[in-house]
Amino acid sequence: MRSIEARGLTKEFKVYQSRSGLTGAFRDLFNRQYRTIRAVNGIDLTIEPGEIVGYIGENGAGKSTTIKMLTGILEPTGGCLRVNGYDPHREREEFVRTIGVVFGQRSQLWWDIAVKESFRLLKKLYRLSGEGYRQHLDRLVEVLEIGPFLDQPVRKLSLGQRMRCELAAALLHQPRLLFLDEPTIGLDVLVKENIRRFLKQVNAEYGTTILLTTHDLSDIEALCSRVVMLDKGNIIYDGDLERLRTQWGDGRRLILELKEEVPSFVLNEKTRGLSVKWEGEGTRYTARLEKGTTVSDVLSRLVPAVAVQELKIEEATTEDIVRRIYREGAAHA
Ligand SMILES: Nc1ncnc2c1ncn2[C@@H]1O[C@H](COP(=O)(O)OP(=O)(O)OP(=O)(O)O)[C@@H](O)[C@H]1O
Hints:
By secondary structure, the chain is α/β, with parallel strands linked by helices. The protein is built from 12 helices and 13 strands. It has helices spanning about 20-30, 65-70, 90-95, 115-125, 130-145, 160-170, 190-205, 215-225, 240-250, 265-270, 295-300, 320-330, and strands spanning about 5-15, 35-45, 50-55, 80-85, 100-105, 175-180, 210-215, 225-230, 235-240, 255-260, 275-280, 285-290, 310-315. The protein starts with a strand and ends in a 5-residue tail after the last helix. Pfam families: ABC_tran.
């Protein structure tokens, strides 16, 4: 059974539009006008058990709306959806036992009670019992190093401590599929590293499928072999990170320090006809090399005319690549 299978998944929102002025407000009283927003536009998405998939897109692309449909919070307007074999919205009660959810911005733990009391409530909610549960909990407490905070109320924990407790809470019932929405937002580098290591471990040991939404591309680099990129409700890339890099990552940067100041128009002139964008001024320039243009193409034009003191070549980072795809608005798997 597939973890996620969506065909033509669509969500539309009807938004009330108010007319301007007093007459407009008066007319709104009797005849409201609505506008339809198609937040998710007929996407096809299949995720197999054990995959770790990064779900990315700019603000407003439709990520949260998708996750809300996949977790059963929102009912789709159209399309077919099965998650862990269930219809998430219609079979919500049985379905939620098979998933875990961590939203970085919101807590599923009770704010004023001790963490272990929250765990106890969740245990009742999921109807968990027995030695298996005890051992699993002990393991989570040990690996996430949350033992010292179990007696404290959530409101007294730091963000990093709370996130580790959230992860434990989301995994108490050993779900087959884990949804993570911005799990490392606001955390310092060390805590981020620990959380990523833990997630890899959970995935390897229990075969837990993970769908991760994040704006932090280093999460994706550390965890996901596959990325799904959303733009205005449509999937514009679904494939591995490596392919994304090779298809779009030829935008290398050449960083130059010149012996003498040279105006930028000279560099533009010398490299006319090549796909290169110059940034900088005086003696320091960066050449952004676009598709097809190589470092030696640029240097062979420059070196006879301009004295170069030092040069450095930088590969485009995933962040550069993704920004570029967002800007240009398309990518094909
Ligand atoms: N309840 C709602 N009512 C009306 N419009 C909505 C609602 N929820 C989302 N939208 C609209 O749907 C579109 C997609 O929003 P969504 O929150 O899914 O994007 P997102 O990719 O998660 O963005 P972000 O990264 O900012 O969280 C946006 O245009 C948003 O304004």
